[in-house]
Each structure stands twice: as C-alpha cells, then as structure tokens.
Design a protein that fits this description.
InterPro entries: SQR/QFR_C/D (IPR034804), SuccDH_FuR_B_TM-su (IPR000701). One of its GO terms (molecular function) is metal ion binding. This is Succinate dehydrogenase/Fumarate reductase transmembrane subunit. It is a single chain. The protein is an all-alpha fold. The protein has one domain: Fumarate reductase/succinate dehydrogenase, transmembrane subunit (3 helical TM bundles of succinate and fumarate reductases, Up-down Bundle). The protein has 5 helices and no strands. The termini are far apart.
Length: about 150
C-alpha cells in the first residue's frame, strides 16, 4: 500500500461544537445543582423548626431576601436547562424522523424558556400581601409592612 492510497485522517471541525459544550454544561450544572438542592433542603427541612416551620410565611420571608431569591432562581434555571438538555439528547438519540426531531427539540426549548421566564417572574415579583384581606392571618404583618 502506498502513501497515496491511505486516506488522510479527518480534520477536527473548527468552530462552535454544541455537543461538546452541552456535555460540559451537564457535568458542571450537575455539580452545582447538587450543592444548590442539598442547601435548599437543609435550610428548609433541618434548620430551625424543620419541616414544621414550612408555611406561606416561611416562603414569603425567604423570597423577601435577594440571597434566597437568587439561590432559588439559579436552581430553577440550572434545573430547567439541565433537564431540557438531557431531553434534547434523548430526542437526538431515539427520534429518527428529522422533522419530528426538530419539532420536539424546538418544543423542549420553548417549554424550558417559558418556564424559566415565568419562574423568574414569580420569584422576583412575589408579594405576600397581594390580595390579603382583614380576615387573613397575614393582615397584621402586611399592615406593619405598610402594604
């Protein structure tokens, strides 16, 4: 066999490689999500009165501080993107029809984007005094807040 008949090795594609970055994101986001989720569970279930303290006022108190707002939003964003990317990988592996694969991938992306937007709005616009009446258990607290 001569050197001319041996095929040259394929060159690596240059440019942005979505699959490589998706793979790296899954590993990194998985590690960060473990920390965020276990921190979330520890604070909500172990600290203070534990699970007995979980009520509307507890959540309202958490969402009143920017630290916990950003903690929960980061957890939401990473979980949704991580899950959507995993589903995209499954769709790419098992859906053979090109049109169906594209439609499902777009649907996953749109669903994840919509949930991220709505979840972020809920966290940052949460108002525990919205709709509180004089018969509500939160009436006195909302009156002291001036709402």
């Amino acid at each position: 066999m001569t050197a001319q008949t041996v095929a040259a090795p394929a060159r690596a594609r240059r440019g942005f490689n979505l699959e490589k970055w998706g793979w790296l994101f899954m590993r990194g986001s998985g590690v960060v999500l473990v920390v965020l989720i276990f921190g979330h569970l520890f604070i909500n279930l172990m600290v203070g009165e534990g699970i007995h303290a979980l009520d509307f006022a507890f959540i309202a108190g958490k969402f009143a501080t920017p630290f916990w707002q950003w903690w929960d939003v980061l957890m939401l964003w990473l979980a949704l993107i991580h899950g959507a990317n995993g589903m995209r990988t499954i769709v790419n592996d098992y859906v053979t029809n090109n049109t169906a694969r594209k439609a499902l991938t777009w649907a996953l992306g749109l669903a994840a984007a919509l949930l991220i937007i709505l979840g972020t709005l809920v966290v940052f616009t949460f108002d525990p005094c919205l709709g509180v009446t004089e018969t509500s258990t939160l009436w006195e607290q909302c009156q002291t807040l001036g709402k």
